[in-house]
Design goal:
Blueprint (H helix, E strand, L loop, with lengths): L1 H20 L1 H28 L5 H19 L1 H8 L7 H20 L1 H13 L9 H18 L1 H6 E11 L2 E10 L4 H41 L7 H8 L5 E7 L8 E7 L2 H28 L1 H9 L13 H7 L2 H4 L3 H8 L1 H11 L8
Antiparallel strand pairs: 1-2, 3-4
Helix pairs in contact: 2-3, 2-4, 2-13, 2-15, 3-5, 3-6, 3-7, 5-7, 6-9, 6-11, 9-11, 11-15, 15-16
Amino acid sequence: MGNDTDNYDLLKGVNDQIFRENIVVVVYMSVVIVFGIFGNTLSFVFHAFVEKRKSVTSLLISALAVNDSCACFLMIGQYFRIMFFLLFTSDIGCKIFRYLNYVFLNGSMLLLNPIGIERCLKVVCKNQRFHLTRNKARVFVFSVLLYSIILGCRHFLASGVVDIDVEVMPNQTVVGHVCTYTNQTIPLMKVLSSLDVLNIAVTNVLLISVYAVMAKKIGLVQKHVDVQPMDSNDESRRLATTVSSIVLTATNSNSGNSDGDQRQRTHVSTIPRRLSSNYYERKITIMLGVITMSSLLSFVPYFIVQMGVKPDGRPGVYYYNPLVQIAWRSVMLNSAINPYIIIVFNNTFRRFIYNVARFKFNSQP
């Protein structure tokens, strides 16, 4: 019994040393988790309850914010995984942690597909029959998340606590317990990891294609707007440039009335509204394009580590070095940065954040 206690103390000493060496990784994860949960929660509240435009885009962004909030919350498990790196004893806990972590992180990437497709249909297709409705968008989101849930089952089945020999002193080893893929499933997981590569490849090709089409379309719209005829008359110049609608009153004689009574017809200019609509659609498309590009780029370091870097497997050093661990956890940024990109492009969301920061919860953004 005393020998087991001594071995545990020696193993805990090595585990604590690993934790201290990876303190930069812990700080990185803490920052991402805090800002991710805070930003995505506010993004969901804004798009679901505050924003007046109840559009399909708002619905999809709300779904992405909920998924990313869950992903950031589950990242707390990464913290405990480092803290108890060699002392992880719960097999079912390991399975659940790795499964849920994969489902929501993968869902963050897959949800970019309906967002991109919805934007493309709205920008390119004038016929609204081809646009996504809110009900169709809900089905799309459910299908994407269900696919991620099913795909993540392999991580639940393949994960577990693996015993490894840890060198605690020269010529002395004790058994450590690491949450990872079991030895029997490693060859299978290497084959099945091609599904992840396929997912990112299909997502890349699809999103690059739809945003390329939208970029061309937006360029044509902008060119068309820029060449709007401008009269030298001051009233016409204001009509073509102002954001608010200008009401012009025209007085016409009623030829059918013998006493010469006149009636007024009010004409509301549609040019400013069209200009404002084009500007809004262009801005939100660029915003979603930036979100998509940043999300896809966040997966690049992860796949480089996953496919090309192996941990040091010698006894006592069975882990990645801190910089490689940060690169491996780069996908965490995918679930944290979206709200802060929205802040840059969406003035209304920025005012909402400002009101929240000043505790003006009942103020109109």
